[in-house]
Amino acid sequence: MRLNQVAQAILLFVVVLLPTVRAQAQNDKVEILRLRNAYNAALKNFDENLGLSFLTNDAQTTISNGTLIHGKENLRRYIRKATGPKMYWVRTPSEIDINTELGLAWEAGIWKGYTVDSGQKSVAGGKYSAMWTKINGTWKIKSQLFVKLE
Q: Is this model's pTM higher than 0.70 or not?
């Protein structure tokens, strides 16, 4: 009798719950893509406040020269102190994996850097990864790593 109950529980999971988990993961993936596109637009428009709103307060960012920046406000200060031509970045995801149970996501792809005067020609680029966390139903970037390869 006990084995029959276990078999029924497994069948219930496979038939009912697994498709629900997959559907939620797909919804989360679509939402992260939407947020990524909005983040890219904020960067292109040099909207610092909107851009930083996609990060958790304690976000860790490793920029392309290897500098690790702890926290959103320290990243804001770093951006404001930057010298040289005004730049924006576009991140293009090639992979997004979701853990719905833990509210975590992995994103990876390529990034390109542009100056105001460079038009469609990037002046730098490479690969990136980002860890997203779901906080009160909203996805935020908890950590991100950028490696300059171009």
A: yes
